Amino acid sequence: xxxxxxxxxxxxxxxxxxxxxxxxxxxxxxxxxxxxxxxxxxxxxxxxxxxxxxxxxxxxxxxxxxxxxxxxxxxxxxxxxxxxxxxxxxxxxxxxxxxxxxxxxxxxxxxxxxxxxxxxxxxxxxxxxxxxxxxxxxxxxxxxxxxxxxxxxxxxxxxxxxxxxxxxxxxxxxxxxxxxxxxxxxxxxxxxxxxxxxxxxxxxxxxxxxxxxxxxxxxxxxxxxxxxxxxxxxxxxxxxxxxxxxxxxxxxxxxxxxxxxxxxxxxxxxxxxxxxxxxxxxxxxxxxxxxxxxxxxxxxxxxxxxxxxxxxxxxxxxxxxxxxxxxxxxxxxxxxxxxxxxxxxxxxxxxxxxxxxxxxxxxxxxxxxxxxxxxxxxxxxxxxxxxxxxxxxxxxxxxxxxxxxxxxxxxxxxxxxxxxxxxxxxxxxxxxxxxxxxxxxxxxxxxxxxxxxxxxxxxxxxxxxxxxxxxxxxxxxxxxxxxxxxxxxxxxxxxxxxxxxxxxxxxxxxxxxxxxxxxxxxxxxxxxxxxxxxxxxxxxxxxxxxxxxxxxxxxxxxxxxxxxxxxxxxxxxxxxxxxxxxxxxxxxxxxxxxxxxxxxxxxxxxxxxxxxxxxxxxxxxxxxxxxxxxxxxxxxxxxxxxxxxxxxxxxxxxxxxxxxxxxxxxxxxxxxxxxxxxxxxxxxxxxxxxxxxxxxxxxxxx
Length: 702
Description:
By secondary structure, this protein is of the alpha/beta class. Among the domains are: 7-199, Transferase(Phosphotransferase), domain 1 (Orthogonal Bundle), CATH 1.10.510.10; 232-386, ABC-type transport auxiliary lipoprotein component (Rossmann fold). The protein contains 32 helices and 9 strands. The longest helix has 20 residues, at 20-39.
């Protein structure tokens, strides 16, 4: 490898720029070196004044990082940081200052990206300053993407200005196609021949497409990992005609990760969920939950198609950029039916104020669509606290793993929430996250249910001591009070408080519906699960309760319609199959009910065989009796395990056996036992004194 003796170009450029003949000479030599590399399929990716050395003979040499390592320490510093060439731009901007707009947006660097960097270098040599400036890295990147370069003035020729201008065209296709073209243009100026400006062919003209702020996240240079600083810095409303209809519902599509780093997915997802949460707390607005919009992270569907599927008036697209302790979020509001872009803006904050940043974005969206915001909602938006960056990082990682939902992921989520609390024991959101995680670990059978319910209660109560406005913590407390403590008034208060804070909280609606069912108010219960599904329409976890509550309310025709709709979407939804079988049974359609049970149990050949034999011997009731006996003969781990056996015995008319298994569920303190007062399976047993005695011991209202 050649050792190059000389001085970095960054040290040679004075405040007012180099003499024109030096600019042309060095520029031609640099362009020649790039052309040589490009002809061999090499893209430099980091051309800048610190990576160019001028030899004692006056020859400009373009270096790579390997050569920089051989240089004296002071010169190597200039190679890697290039801060001298861009005064006052702040740390890390040596990388950003030469990056082309497309690279900042996450696209792969190409030869035309090098030509952009060459244009920056030419401008710097001629004027002594960079063509774009900014007080912070975000400001600098925003200027590169949005603004025109600083004008070249003084004794600089019109031809040279034209070369620089073409190199610094935002659209790559409109720049010079090759570095050889730049070299030729500069050589022509050197000998006094007017530069030829080739007009781009039709193939080179820019093409635009409708899409989100998402731009292809290609392989980006290491500098780009420090963030593609943001495109779309325009603020305020976009010019448009009259838009039909008021906006009363919206969805926030997955935010784009402009860092070019998949490792930052947890951070972007956390910003996305927090923005949705803030908007969900506006009672006049129906907001689709995160779980239902995540399917649109990678989609070819148009804005109107997505809006129609989610049944919303408008969509929000946006992106997240992060550099050190600076964060920028952009957002744009798009009308769902017309695809008109109604408004767009960018918001900057230090990391510690990220919650205030998210509240500001939510408030701006609410203001733009003119949705009514109550004084209480406005106060909640304004009350965002500062965060400890390390604690917030850990919390966001916990939230990321929580959303993945497997047992291993939930345990990872709990670890990260605990890390956040080790850093800041007063961090209410981390306590609330831990509460939700404990509840799911127990509910999904990944840990002992009673143990996790106790831990969930303690974490939720601590969260609410620190911040009474946390809807998730109230919701967790409601579930614990309802199914474990059996304190109905406290459960009602918790769910009602959660829904007062966040009227779009689908799982608070579900829990409150269960409470209303216990209280003998089935129609109100159905209203709440339907409202919960409207906020989260694309996941079974909010659709299945609609079927269940229609069934518990004896609205069998509607329940069956819902069953069929859901099974068309996901034939293997076991909970839906169970509700469907029960619905058909109570409609007196026994053959269809047994067929549904057979599909439900297709993974258990012994159970299916018992069903068929019982049917052959004596009919539908004996078929269920045979299955119940088969299940009763096996081990029954789990606190809720006795309940399906009790229900089958009840449907088969075996009342004594049904009571025996209900007693076993009572002894295990099975959470789902509290619903026996509403379940149709026990209708024929209600006149039995044993049923009234059991409901009294459970504490159910008469």
